[in-house]
Amino acid sequence: MSDGSALTDLVIVSGLSGAGKSSAMQVFEDAGYFCVDNLPAEMIRSLADLFLHEGSKVERACVVSDLRGGEFFDALASVLDALGTAGIAHRVVYLSADEQTLLTRYKETRRRHPLAPHGSVVDGIRAEQRMLDPIRDRADVFIDTSGLSAAMLRRKVADELLAPAAPGKLAVTFQSFGHKHGPPRDADLAFDVRFLPNPHYEPGLRPLTGFDSRIVEYVARDGRLEELYSHLLPLLDYLLPQYVAEGKAHLVVAIGCTGGRHRSVAIAERLAAHYAGQGAYFVEAAHRDVERGSVRP
């Protein structure tokens, strides 16, 4: 190993299958890191030594090592310990998600869990959690990706793990949610709109969602919706530039109603359209509970 080595940052990404490791790696790839996906654990030290050799032009590298590495994965914990003993600077990033989120992702992609190719996905998830406990214990950064879209995860990784770049546009997500399904994760601001008329109690409106103009008309019927906007928009007009000045990269504004299908969806859509039209921010509307995982950029 030579003092002329170029490697300044080695990131090792691991975690549960379906937790978003590939999306996380894309962030480092876009930032110019040398990236290797599905690298057997026992090859990590050899790769690090190669990059540390004088003449190597690789300054930053990211490797993903997980259960796809098969029997080699058993060695990951000892490899991580060996890197520390050898004084090789590195960061271990561990990605996880709650059981329901992982089940939903497997259902949507129709993938089989690597530990349960012919059995229950739940059994595979729980077995993997037990196997990964030693890696989780060694993690420098832990990220829970439950409730995050791929875009939101990438922004979170960039915000927390990459050096600040030149100031750019603030990415703003207006996220609707239903209080009965639990509080929103990673919300920076949260507004409760359950005081507005609830379409749920109208049989003809109940099957619809906040994307439908009939829902918007019903919620706005007594004037309180427009009164809400008369207060909320000036507040956001003040707050968003403050977050930009602070250097924040991503802001999540959560809007909550009872079930997350009607009022909160309509308001999140309205706010997203309003601020997207200004062109000052990257804007998306995400709807956690209207139909699980629905995202409307």
Fold and architecture overview:
This protein has 297 residues and is an alpha/beta fold. The chain has two domains: 9-161, Rossmann fold (3-Layer(aba) Sandwich), CATH 3.40.50; 171-296, no CATH class. It is 38% helix and 18% strand. It is built from nine helices and ten strands. The protein has helices at 21-30, 44-52, 76-85, 99-109, 121-137, 150-161, 213-219, 224-246, 263-276; strands spanning 9-15, 34-36, 60-64, 91-96, 141-144, 171-178, 189-192, 250-257, 282-287, 294-296. Strands 2-3-1-4-5 form a five-stranded parallel beta sheet, with helices on both faces. A five-stranded mixed beta sheet has the order 7-8-6-9-10, with helices on both faces. Helix 1 crosses helix 6 and helix 4 packs across helix 5. The longest helix is centred in the C-terminal third of the chain and has 23 residues, at 224-246. It is globular and about 70 Å long. The termini are far apart.
